[in-house]
UniProtKB/TrEMBL annotation:
GO terms for cellular component: plasma membrane; side of membrane. The gene is qmcA. It comes from Sinorhizobium fredii (strain USDA 257). Belongs to the band 7/mec-2 family. It is found in: Membrane. The lineage of its organism: Bacteria, Pseudomonadati, Pseudomonadota, Alphaproteobacteria, Hyphomicrobiales. This is Protein QmcA. SMART domains: PHB. Residues 21-179 form the Band domain. It comes from the Bacteria. Residues 302-330 are annotated as: Disordered. Keywords: Membrane, Transmembrane, Transmembrane helix. Coiled coil: none annotated.
Length: 330
């Protein structure tokens, strides 16, 4: 094998290495910067890419996926001079690989210090109570401030979250006592409001009950008066009818009226609570005659198709007492 053969072999190997040096493969989620003689010229995307061998080279391999930055615990002095410990976590993403590679040195350390500084600034401008109760507000302010500061580096801060805020032990105990006192005060206020509402409801119930009772008594009195009025009208009408019958010369009407009152009086005497045995002399024929008068009036009112005949005179029975009934005329 002569010198020409060695030269050909060397040329083939050189061409092979040249082609190999000009082909670059970029994995998904990364971007590579290309430098020519040390100067940035372009950024290559994931996949198969070609560069000029011996003139171009890969400058920086930037991860463009969203990444997590753990912010360590640090001491923060609040606006009301309370010392608290706080730690956080930040999420960021490289949007411009060239700026992230050439605008700042040690990107992760720069973002970490930037976040820690702004945490102290934002939390130091707030009172302790506001700091503990407005964590979302703190996150929003941190996100806005840190994202604006990292924008020239081609970085997008997607989220900043405060993981924990730890006040000193004595301060936590004081806050617990304050919370307990506040809850006891709230419980007393609620109990007083409940008692007041219960008294108001009871008073309203008594008022409604009195109103309904008064309305019921008024309605009962009205109906009782109406019943008495109707009864009086009925008695007046009955008296008028009897009076007209008497004026017309109907003796049976007199007997009917007297027998009715006589029967009502006997019923009242018999049903009295203070009377057990009633001994009363009376003439039975008088009562029978009165009942006969009632029957005659009924026949005249309802009619039986025949005119009433003359009544026979009744023989009077011997009286058993001083009482005497009405005399019935033949």
């Amino acid at each position: 094998m002569g010198g020409l053969d060695y030269a050909v072999i060397a040329l083939v190997v050189l061409v092979f290495f040249t082609l190999f040096a000009g082909v670059k493969t970029v994995p998904q989620g990364y971007r590579y910067t290309i430098e020519r003689f040390g100067r940035y010229i372009r950024t290559i995307d994931p996949g198969l890419n070609f560069i000029i061998p011996y003139f171009d080279r890969i400058g920086a391999k930037m991860n463009v996926m969203e990444q997590v930055l753990d912010v360590p615990t640090q001491e923060v002095i609040t606006k009301d001079n309370a010392s608290v410990s706080a730690d956080a976590v930040a999420f960021y993403q490289v949007l411009n690989p060239a700026q992230a590679a050439y605008q700042v040195s040690n990107l992760e350390n720069a973002l970490l210090n930037l976040t820690m500084t702004n945490i102290r600034s934002v939390m130091g401008s707030m009172d302790l109570d506001e700091l503990l109760s407005n964590r979302d507000t703190i996150n929003d302010r941190l996100l806005r401030v840190v994202d604006e500061a990292a924008n020239p580096w081609g970085i997008k801060i997607t989220r900043v979250e405060i993981k924990d805020i730890a006040p000193p032990t004595d301060l936590v105990e004081a806050m617990a006592r304050q919370m307990k006192a506040e809850r006891e005060k709230r419980a007393q206020v609620l109990e007083a409001e409940g008692s007041r509402n219960a008294q108001i409801l009871r008073a309203e119930g008594a008022k409604q009950s009195a109103i309904l009772e008064a309305e019921g008594q008024r309605e009962a009195a009205y109906r009782e008066a109406e019943a008495r009025e109707r009864l009086a009208e009925a008695e007046a009408k009955a008296t008028r009818v009897v009076s007209e019958a008497i004026a017309a010369g109907d003796v049976q009407a007199i007997n009917y009226f007297v027998a009715q009152k006589y029967t009502e009086a006997l019923a009242s005497i018999g049903t009295a609570n203070n009377q057990k045995i009633v001994l009363m002399p009376m003439e039975a024929s008088s009562l029978i005659g009165s009942l006969g008068g009632i029957g005659a009036i009924a026949r005249e009112v309802f009619g039986d198709g025949q005119a009433p005949g003359p009544s026979r005179p009744r023989q009077s029975t011997p009286r058993t007492g001083p009482a005497s009934g009405p005399v019935e005329n033949a």
